[in-house]
Amino acid sequence: xxxxxxxxxxxxxxxxxxxxxxxxxxxxxxxxxxxxxxxxxxxxxxxxxxxxxxxxxxxxxxxxxxxxxxxxxxxxxxxxxxxxxxxxxxxxxxxxxxxxxxxxxxxx
Length: 108
Prior knowledge:
By secondary structure, the chain is of the alpha+beta class.
């Protein structure tokens, strides 16, 4: 599998479950147990898609693979680790959220 080609097909679409503000993912519907998105990232879906694609290209992915895409992708930015989770395996759509240091996969 060519990770660069795969990465070019992946897109961050977000999830209202992680938002406390309206976004392109829809009106906020925060879950009590879901990490809340940093409002500074509000609307930056192109930036977040870039982070997602960089994680895939770097091989920072986790099984299982669903169709052509890995279920999980990780990316670190300014000391914060983000996890993306596949929400649509046919289209390669992902949501993402910040994870704690203790949740980081080994070797990331």
